[in-house]
Amino acid sequence: MRIAIFGKAVSPDDAEALRNALARVLSMDPTAHIAQGYLDELSDHMEVPSGLRPFEGEVPLEVDLLLAFGGDGTVLESATMVRRGEVPILGVNTGRLGFLSNVSMEAFDLAMDALTAGTTWIEERALLHVEVSDSDLGDFPYALNEVVIHKRDTASMVVVDVHRDEKFVNTYWADGLLVSTPTGSTAYSLSAGGPIVLPGSEVVVVTPVAPHNLNDRPLVVPLEGEITLVAGGRDAQFLLSMDSRSFPLEPGREVVIRPADFRIKLVNLEHQDFFSTVRQKMHWGLDPRER
Fold first, then answer.
1. Where in the chain is the domain with CATH 3.40.50.10330?
2. Is 72 a catalytic site residue?
3. CA–CA gap between residue 248 and residue 231 (Å, rounded)
4. pLDDT tens digits in sequence order for the chain, 291 residues long
């Protein structure tokens, strides 16, 4: 198995655990790759095991697995590096339990044992493809979590017209409007009052952020099809966000959202499932006095 490594710098308290994890990777793949930027960050405050080969941009062609050390945001960023979903991602959480980075550092060796034994399973997650006329959204115009239109540093609301397959849906007056995948249903959409959606469901959720009209509620529609957003209001410019990447958006520009023609593969351990992660993360079934 050929392995690549990506992540975010950890605190000095976690350096020893990370160093041991990197050594374990090298024992499995003596020619393992590591993202150049991540290597530079780690080298500033810890001794990185020798033998790791740096790379930039997408993971090298021979790689079979990308390990993402960090949180859910790290997994989202790593999705831009895996050659349009060709390479599975295993998220290793260096902080609290995440929905995407659901392997803890304490369980890292068990996860590597499971990879060697072939007892892991792969889950495919849908992405959204975004187009804006006369705008450059970079080399990866896709979102694994959500697409958001929101205001820029003013008290004015955003007015967003929404169409689906050329049929008018609604006009939303709000601080913002987001279109999320099932993966993103436990992220920004959840904090804005959206529903939790089981991964693998072929739907997207349209959720207004702090809507002016209290009868505007999250809307669930099929994944297939085309959603068009057009923002207006008093601002001369808005922001369009795709996961953690943001771009300026001029009023009146059409934002066209379709399902991507590929999916991201996430590696899970044998015992892991979405409901167990949600129970742990959301503290379902616990007496509040015992949290």
1. 3-120+269-290
2. yes
3. 12
4. 999 999 987 777 788 999 999 999 999 999 999 999 999 999 988 889 999 999 999 999 999 999 999 999 999 999 999 999 999 999 999 877 689 998 999 999 999 999 999 999 999 999 999 999 889 999 999 999 999 999 887 778 899 999 999 999 999 999 999 999 999 999 999 999 999 999 999 999 999 999 998 899 999 999 999 999 999 987 778 999 999 899 999 999 999 999 999 999 999 999 888 998 898 888 888 776 765
Q: Is the pTM of this model over 0.90?
A: yes
> Integer distance in angstroms from the first to the last C-alpha of the chain?
40
Distance, CA of 163 to CA of 177 (rounded, Å): 13
Which of the residues 29, 44, 64, 72 is marked catalytic? 72
Q: Classify domain 3-120+269-290 at the CATH class level.
A: alpha beta
Q: Are strands 65-70 and 53-55 parallel, antiparallel or unpaired?
A: unpaired
The architecture (CATH level 2) of 127-260 comes to Sandwich (2.60)
Q: Which of 194, 184, 190 is nearest to 243 (CA)?
A: 184
